[in-house]
From TrEMBL, chains A, B:
Pathway: Purine metabolism; IMP biosynthesis via de novo pathway; 5-amino-1-(5-phospho-D-ribosyl)imidazole-4-carboxylate from 5-amino-1-(5-phospho-D-ribosyl)imidazole (N5-CAIR route): step 1/2
Keywords: ATP-binding, Ligase, Nucleotide-binding, Purine biosynthesis
Function of the molecule: Catalyzes the ATP-dependent conversion of 5-aminoimidazole ribonucleotide (AIR) and HCO(3)(-) to N5-carboxyaminoimidazole ribonucleotide (N5-CAIR).
Entry's family note: Belongs to the PurK/PurT family.
InterPro entries: ATP-grasp (IPR011761), ATP-grasp_carboxylate-amine (IPR003135), ATP_grasp_subdomain_1 (IPR013815), PreATP-grasp_dom_sf (IPR016185), PurK (IPR005875), PurK_C (IPR040686), PurT/PurK_preATP-grasp (IPR054350), Rudment_hybrid_motif (IPR011054)
Residues binding ATP: 100, 140, 179-182, 187, 298-299
Leading EC class: ligase
Coiled-coil parts of chain: none
Protein's UniProt keywords contain Membrane: no
Protein name, per record: N5-carboxyaminoimidazole ribonucleotide synthase
Organism of origin: Ruicaihuangia caeni
């Protein structure tokens, strides 16, 4: 009679669901892509998530199917639902996490704030969009992008010629997404979780720092912030230069959390999207805080998300526990923070001369308050192989300790 | 190159090491007694821990061997060490957790405070001890007792006749442990962890509440306490009557933690035992706080312990993470609490009409701040099948929420 959750995909998000499942006494089973993945400990099956028979056989062993990623094809998702399998999030919601043009269209229908956008099928259409939006555009492939891949800032349509050529050669056809280059002061992320029966729980909005399109640091909650006049932004690609640090940006703004108004607006945005799209499980909304104060939706993820890893060590209910509760339609947990501040720093690449744990002697001795998370992946330049979380009362101190701990794994 | 920890025994203590191992990216392997135990997810082997070949084969797959329990026979432990296996805690230390007479003798040699005691081989010797100690004694079997089993309060030697008869029939012979009936006001527990290289980390001393010899509740840190004049104590068996509650005992003492002096004396006692006995890994020292203020050692456990379960949700470093770090001789983590108070309430027996998770709908809805831990064991009267932890700023509130959450599983 033990509740059984099936997770499709064996990456670190599935891995980090395992401790939450163990604590709650849930049976967690993972359909992994290959042997030896991050979530191998719970990988009861290894197989192709694009193969309906494989996924159906896996689904028959569990009470609910959920995901480590958003790549399961729609025909497979819909066949599961037709056969009565509980799938959370469901196909309609996932469609908007799989296709950025569909996501922009749905959010626009719902009247939610997004950057100006258009689906462009030709270079001419893209050039028109560029000309109408200040001489630049962010161009994105509708499908398959992540961590900055499939995203390009262009000032002339020919800079996307290769992508149009690829589209023309793709039997499915389609379009590219063109978006205005938002003049944003920083990036935020709003995490919420929604049960199939409708209840929603939200964590306080966090600030995320990207570098080359990859999340490097998360501050929870988002601190108060007044954009510096000389700050460089390059919307849609990276918030700060590779040489920059959040400390330099924040300067005198570290001491207090963001205004209640910002927190409330971000939460309402997260709730509106979760309800509007019928998301079940955890939803992460990546948000631009524009210089004019507007909050604009950047990307969506319908699963636990890098911006919520802080919650494992910093929140009464982690995003992984909450996701399991939500997809099982169990009551959601309290999202209060354990401490005034939590900072999460990603370990990107990892040491190139050995596994992460070869640095434990030095790292754990130097930073006894740091919570080290090691995804069990081989180090490789740029790869997310782990993260560090530190919690505490003063943001400058917490930032310093978290960065110092992560630096041991460079 | 991943660090590999082998745990002998597949119970809930091994189970609760798994999340800590996953977070730190350690490879955890469990030698379980049978299929389907609490730690089944990591049970790479099922076999008899008393069989040297089984244990040796298991040990060859890991970097260090540690334990879910203290029952591995000394010849097996010593054979492992002779073959160069890292075993933590080691055989000499474990001897004192396996045999209560040896424990009392070693602590006495070290000059550490214990109740008056004697090893008694006959009823005459026991009667002499009773007569010399106020007309009562706590009699314990030297080996094999737990959760109140193998412990009896007697006022005449014939009340232990059956145990003497059993001893006489045991080829190994031996003695019973007789101890004075300590006039204690409450029971405490001091948790420490020690690395093979010597470093020790201590958590603040906690108060434990036993009922019929079984831990039912832990308050971390131990609150300030002035014994009530009319309090009933029955040393060594239970702190309060089955109908009693800690709230009734504490009355006006809930608001503040115990004095710095008490905390310091308890920590020094824990450190002295860990060093004196050469314990590696987590050591739990069960302590009587006598009415005259003395701290007397009751029992020792050389592994994570029920009194430290609060640390999973209430401490920067949990006892399970710390145990893994300690047995691998890695630097120990910070033991600061997340909140002023943590209360852990055991789920004993569990619902007799279904599994624990059949109550999740009601329990999680009513107590969104409670952290539920379900050991995946079948409910059975009196069995430890899970626990609940709640943290917060006010002890009365935290106690109320933790008890209310646990009550859903009665």
């Amino acid at each position: 009679m033990t509740l059984k959750v099936g997770v499709i995909g064996g990456g670190q998000l599935a891995r980090m669901m395992i401790p939450a499942a163990i604590n709650l006494g849930l049976d967690i089973r993972v359909l992994a892509e290959t042997e030896g993945m991050s979530a191998a400990l719970a990988a009861s099956e290894v197989g192709d998530y694009r193969d309906l028979d494989t996924v159906l056989a896996f689904a028959e062993t569990v009470d609910v199917v959920t995901f480590d990623h958003e790549h399961v094809p729609q025909p497979v998702l819909r066949a599961l639902v037709e056969r009565g399998v509980e799938v959370h999030p469901g196909p309609d919601a996932l469609q908007c996490a799989q296709d950025k043009i569909d996501m922009r269209a749905r959010l626009t229908e719902l009247g939610l704030p997004v950057p100006a956008w258009a689906a462009v099928e030709t270079e001419d259409e893209l050039q028109q969009f560029i000309d109408a939006h200040g001489g630049a555009a962010v161009v994105k492939t509708a499908r398959g992008g992540y961590d900055g891949k499939g995203v390009r800032v262009v000032r002339a349509a020919h800079e996307a010629t290769d992508w149009f050529t690829a589209l023309a050669e793709d039997a499915r056809g389609g379009a590219l997404l063109a978006e205005e280059l938002v003049d944003f002061s920083r990036e935020l992320a709003q995490l919420v979780a929604r049960r199939p029966s409708g209840d929603i729980a939200a964590w306080p909005v966090v600030e995320t720092l990207q570098r080359d399109g990859v999340c490097v640091e998360v501050i929870a909650p988002a601190p108060a912030f007044a954009p510096a006049a000389d700050e460089h932004t390059d919307a849609g690609v990276s918030t700060v230069e590779a040489s920059g640090t959040a400390a330099a940006r924040h300067g005198r703004h570290l001491a207090s959390p963001a205004s209640a108004d910002l927190v409330e607006r971000a939460e309402q945005l997260g709730r509106a999207i979760a309800e509007g799209l019928g998301v079940t499980g955890v939803l992460a909304v990546e948000i631009f805080e524009a210089r004019d104060g507007r909050l604009l939706v950047n990307e969506l993820a319908m699963r636990p998300h890098n911006s919520g890893h802080f919650s494992i060590d910093g929140s009464t209910t982690s995003q992984f526990e909450q996701h399991l509760r939500a997809v099982l339609d169990l009551p959601l947990g309290d999202t209060s923070p354990f401490a005034p501040w939590s900072v999460m720093v990603n370990i990107l690449g990892g040491p190139q001369d050995g596994p992460l744990d070869s640095r434990y002697g030095a790292a754990l001795a130097a930073e006894p308050t740091a919570k080290i998370h090691n995804y069990g992946k081989d180090p490789r330049p740029g790869r997310k192989v782990g993260h560090v979380t530190v919690t505490g009362d003063r943001l400058d101190d917490v930032l310093q300790r978290a960065r110092a701990a992560a630096a041991h794994f460079a």
